[in-house]
């Protein structure tokens, strides 16, 4: 029933909201942007680097002076990114988006097996392992391969709080496994996966089966959401492949990277001029690359300070929502919660009475991103709440922007145990560098007003 009304509401308001000033997003009131998981603004440092680099117009592959100038700046951007990831510059490949990077990791790994004589001779079907709550950029290419019968896939369940179980990964590993892909931090519920421990488990399995670090399976980490708050040391995390996206760390859109450990064999998915050492054809955008590098540098410099500041604000917001909306439900793990060794079978999420925030700071970000809250306000459809909040000057979302055009609820919440109707009533609030406490006070007031007036 909720799905039916959700489709009607979405189609009507997305088409006609501009004609109703009361609900139009074109209000003159102050805007409060709380969708930083969807995209961040371009920071001043990255914007300055972008503007300065626009005067460098040469093709970085050319050997004349202008091309050499562009090539040197591209190398500088690559070196900066490599240093931050504790990698070599030749292990960094610039691509056009986080989605492209994930596709290259998934499809490139598969294509790398198609020339393996042993696998072809023995008709070995490649095996993938992914969590059930991965981003569509990982799930969709894997499902495409699965539907065509080219691969076998194990979809890992998650705890009720959205954390994968390392033992499940150990048990799923087989001699046919070529890739394990787990996102560092979930884009909807903000839960941080134990990627370091997963990497160690894969490494131990390889040793037990007499495989080297360059043998399958590879470990891919989608770190797009984690970049502002988590450690990106690829050696420490034992990553073979890692995706990082500029538009999630206050850099420009249209640029991302794939880290590929030396010796790892993947095949390109974009063919042409052979740029990026043959891994991604197409003339590189030097301006975007250096701007991305500056944004990444600033994100690392601000990581500790912002993590603590936003953690305080996030827990304050959770507490205020709890006080003002007694029947609210929060999804995903919080750092003050003890992770239970059980999986979700019925109710998706924890009631607010179980989510009393701690008050001692600074605090480590162990199980959830410092800036993320995902909650359900009963009786209000996600799209309706988002549009009504938009009319009041607040930008929030409810699931991945890459899947926002779909009318179904969040598959991430359903994987946690939420019903279909419940998965149509959540909102995702992601704080950022400009977020202040008064912003959150006004947000709570607005959500409460909408619930009291429009709850079904």
Summarize the structure.
With 456 residues, this protein is an alpha/beta fold.
What does this protein structure show overall?
The protein is an alpha/beta fold. The chain folds into two domains: 193 residues, Aspartate Aminotransferase, domain 1 (Alpha-Beta Complex), CATH 3.90.1150; 254 residues, Aspartate Aminotransferase, domain 2 (3-Layer(aba) Sandwich). 39% of the residues lie in helices and 12% in strands. It is built from 13 helices and 13 strands. The strands form three sheets. Strands 2-8-7-6-5-3-4 form a seven-stranded mixed sheet, sandwiched between helices. The protein has a four-stranded antiparallel sheet with strand order 10-9-11-13. It is globular and about 65 Å long.
Q: Main traits of this protein?
A:
single chain; 456 residues; alpha/beta; Aspartate Aminotransferase, domain 1; Aspartate Aminotransferase, domain 2; 7-stranded mixed beta sheet; 4-stranded antiparallel beta sheet; 13 helices
Oligomer class: single chain
Helices and strands, in order, run as HEHHEHHEHEHEHEHEEHEEEHEHEH
Which CATH C-level class of the largest domain is it? Alpha Beta
**Contiguous helical run count:** 13
**CATH fold naming of the largest domain:** Aspartate Aminotransferase, domain 2
How much helicity do the residues have? 25-40%
Low-confidence stretches: 18-27, 337-365
The chain-level mean pLDDT equals 87
Terminal-residue CA separation: 12 Å
Main sheet summary: 7 strands, mixed
Number of domains: 2
Q: Which homologous superfamily in CATH is the superfamily of the largest domain?
A: Type I PLP-dependent aspartate aminotransferase-like (Major domain)
Based on the coordinates given, report the CATH architecture of the largest domain.
3-Layer(aba) Sandwich
Radius of gyration: 22 Å
Can you tell me the overall shape? globular
Strand content: 5-15%
Strand order of the largest sheet: 2-8-7-6-5-3-4
DSSP strand tally: 13
Helix-and-strand structural type: alpha/beta
């Amino acid at each position: 029933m909720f799905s039916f009304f959700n489709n009607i509401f979405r189609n009507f308001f997305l088409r006609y909201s501009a004609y109703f000033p009361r609900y139009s997003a074109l209000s003159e009131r102050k805007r409060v942007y709380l969708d930083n998981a969807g995209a961040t603004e371009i920071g001043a440092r990255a914007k300055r680097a972008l503007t300065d680099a626009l005067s460098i117009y040469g093709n970085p592959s050319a050997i004349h002076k202008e091309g050499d100038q562009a090539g040197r700046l591209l190398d500088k951007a690559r070196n900066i990114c490599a240093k931050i990831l504790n990698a070599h510059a030749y292990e960094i490949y610039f691509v056009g988006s986080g989605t492209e990077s994930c596709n290259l990791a998934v499809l490139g790994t598969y294509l790398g097996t198609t020339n393996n004589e042993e696998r072809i001779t023995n008709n070995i079907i490649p095996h993938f392992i992914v969590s059930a709550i991965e981003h569509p950029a990982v799930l969709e290419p894997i499902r495409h391969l699965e539907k065509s019968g080219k691969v076998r896939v194990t979809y890992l369940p998650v705890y009720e709080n959205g954390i994968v179980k390392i033992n499940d990964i150990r048990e799923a590993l087989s001699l046919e496994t070529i890739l394990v892909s787990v996102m560092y931090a979930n884009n909807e519920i903000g839960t941080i996966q134990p990627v370091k421990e997963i990497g160690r488990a894969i490494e131990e399995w390889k040793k037990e089966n007499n495989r080297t670090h360059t043998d399958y399976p590879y470990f891919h980490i989608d770190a797009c959401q984690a970049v502002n708050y988590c450690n990106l040391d690829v050696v420490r995390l034992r990553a073979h492949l890692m995706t990082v996206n500029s538009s999630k760390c206050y850099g420009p859109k249209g640029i991302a990277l794939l880290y590929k450990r030396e010796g790892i064999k993947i095949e390109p998915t974009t063919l042409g001029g052979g740029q990026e050492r043959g891994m991604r054809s197409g003339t590189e955008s030097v301006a975007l690359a250096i701007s991305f590098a500056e944004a990444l540098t600033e994100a690392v410099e601000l990581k500790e300070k912002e993590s603590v500041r936003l953690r305080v604000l996030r827990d304050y917001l959770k507490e205020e929502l709890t006080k003002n909306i007694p029947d609210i439900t929060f999804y995903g793990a919080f750092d003050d919660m003890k992770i239970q060794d059980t999986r979700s079978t019925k109710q998706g999420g924890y009631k607010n009475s179980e989510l009393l925030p701690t008050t001692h700071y600074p605090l480590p970000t162990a199980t959830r991103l410092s800036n993320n809250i995902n909650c359900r306000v009963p009786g209000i459809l996600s799209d309706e709440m988002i549009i009504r909040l938009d009319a009041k000057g607040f930008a929030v979302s409810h699931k991945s922007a890459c899947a926002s055009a779909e009318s179904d609820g969040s598959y991430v919440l359903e994987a946690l145990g939420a019903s279909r109707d419940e998965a149509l009533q959540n909102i995702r609030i992601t704080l950022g560098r400009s977020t202040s406490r008064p912003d959150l006070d006004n947000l709570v007031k607005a959500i409460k007003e909408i619930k009291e007036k429009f709850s079904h």
